[in-house]
Design brief:
Strand order of the largest sheet: 1-2
Low-confidence stretches: none
Structural class: mainly alpha
Strand content: 5-15%
Shape: globular
């Protein structure tokens, strides 16, 4: 959900030249859960073709900021990594009823929008 919202915000704000979105997990599921697909479809975001993947230490090394949803990335971040890790401490939507998944979805969306507000206020525009 966070990656989809981040991609949408990046595109809405025309920030593809300044923000790269890389998604992955430390212990990814085999598929995006049906209830998550349903909750995101309600906001016209289609996750049916997405497949969770594992993030690599090499990918993390190249990142300035890593956002985790409820787990630290410290166990996979390279020892010499100097980036910032923010853990949003969100509940895992797996196995939860749609009402709770919607709440998690809405919290993720709000946090992503706020993060983009913060990041883009710090980044000079190329115009």
């Amino acid at each position: 959900m966070a990656a989809a919202f981040a991609e949408r915000e990046r595109d809405r704000r025309d920030a593809a030249d300044r923000i790269e979105v890389v998604t992955g997990g430390t212990r990814p599921a085999d598929r995006v859960h049906d209830v998550v697909v349903e909750a995101m479809r309600e906001l016209d975001v289609d996750l049916r073709d997405r497949t969770p993947r594992e993030v690599t230490p090499e990918e993390l090394q190249a990142m300035d900021l890593v956002v985790t949803m409820g787990c630290s990335a410290s166990d996979v971040c390279p020892a010499a990594w100097n980036g910032e890790n923010r853990d949003w401490g969100l509940d895992d939507p797996h196995g939860r009823p749609i009402e709770e998944v919607r709440e998690i979805r809405d919290e993720i969306e709000a946090r992503v929008v706020a993060l983009f507000d913060e990041l883009l206020s710090e980044t000079p525009s190329a115009g």
